[in-house]
Specification:
By secondary structure, this protein is an alpha+beta fold. It is about 45% helix and about 20% strand. α2 packs across α3 and α6 crosses α8.
């Protein structure tokens, strides 16, 4: 375990990281002394920087250059920011959700937020849409459309509609389907699909002998509707070309090709955001804290959005480690909060139409 840094070392480290983020080049002791530390000589700062390098917070690209922060140095810098939280909208010059409107669909709200997130941060914006498991059920309607088929129309709590044709026994009547719809709406409205699956499994295992014919058929139809497996939700990506504005990527063609492939395939990013979804509040992953090797030169700042107490998805900014953490943390927190508020408004609007 490394010893705690004294106040002078902390000040030098924080200023060096800030300077490197701003200038995108190794930072020397003379530059720090001239710009920020009038009371410290370049020689003193150089000694402090040498100590920080030995402790793993900095590294020197070559012997005559200044220093660059390591992942550990960035982590210290970010933790310092998080120790002094600011209001979600502090310093926000434009609201990343300001282009949304009440006439937009649920998906359109998230698409607009993702685009604005990228524009506000000048990095790559990511928004993970809710998977079916995290969708909250509002009501369902069954309509017989053939001798042995029914159309199930499923509505989420946000008014999102999904249709599915399911097989039924030929002797099932429309009146019975209407009764089954009523039963399921009374039993499960307001619950997530994940919760409904668990309840169905429990009932089928433990209460089967108590079913009447109608309940038995309701359970069978529910299993077909609610058992769709979706490991992850879909991912929206905006602003991938912003990586080309970063000097640390434009000089390494193979690095940028690998990174663009990761952004295009999405699967690794989706898994990463799903891990963030399991956390409460803000997640900041720096360099090698990301699970995939091709992301080691990047950082991810993420927060969850949701409805009431349910986490539905994740919004994030993905970019180089040399990003403006303070500003982007504020943007991500603000956007997650605003998206959650917009979803609550849409839920109320949908309920008024019922």
């Amino acid at each position: 375990m490394n010893p705690a840094l004294d106040e002078r070392s902390q000040s030098v480290l924080l200023e060096l990281v800030h300077n490197y983020i701003d200038k995108a080049g190794p930072v020397g002791s003379l530059s720090l002394a001239k710009n920020r530390f009038n009371t410290l000589s370049p020689a003193t700062i150089r000694n402090v920087m040498s100590d920080l390098e030995e402790l793993g917070y900095l590294y020197q690209p070559h012997i005559s250059a200044g220093r660059i922060p390591t992942d550990k140095g960035y982590r210290f810098f970010v933790n310092h920011i998080l120790d002094f939280p600011v209001p979600d909208d502090f310093g926000i010059s434009s609201d990343p959700t300001e282009r949304t409107s009440k006439v937009q669909s649920f998906d359109e709200v998230l698409e607009t937020a993702c685009s604005q997130l990228s524009e506000s941060s000048h990095q790559t914006g990511l928004v993970m849409l809710p998977g079916f498991s995290n969708t909250r059920f509002n009501h369902i309607q069954f309509s017989k459309v053939g001798l042995s088929e029914a159309l199930a129309v499923f509505y989420s709590d946000l008014g999102v509609m999904q249709n599915k044709i399911i097989p039924i026994e030929s002797d099932v009547t429309q009146e019975q389907l209407t009764s089954i719809s009523k039963y399921l709406n009374e039993e499960f409205s307001g619950k997530t699909i994940k919760t409904i699956r668990h309840e169905l499994l429990h009932r089928i295992r433990n209460e089967r002998e108590h079913y009447n014919q109608l309940t038995k058929r309701a359970m069978e139809l529910s299993a077909q509707i609610f058992d769709e497996e979706d490991e992850y939700g879909n991912l929206l990506v905006e602003g991938t070309l912003n990586f080309l504005d970063q000097p640390e990527f434009t000089t390494d063609l193979e690095k940028i090709k690998t990174l663009f492939k990761t952004l295009e395939e999405k699967s690794k990013l989706i898994k990463l955001l799903d891990l963030c979804l399991q956390q409460d509040g803000l997640t900041v992953l720096i360099g090698e804290e990301n699970s995939e090797e091709e992301m080691n030169g990047c950082s991810l700042i993420a927060n969850n959005y949701g409805l009431d107490n349910d986490k539905m998805g994740t919004i994030a900014v993905f970019g180089p480690k040399r990003m403006d953490y303070k500003n982007i943390i504020t943007i991500v927190n603000h956007t997650a909060k605003k998206v959650s508020e917009l979803l609550s408004e849409r839920k109320l609007e949908f309920q008024k139409t019922l």
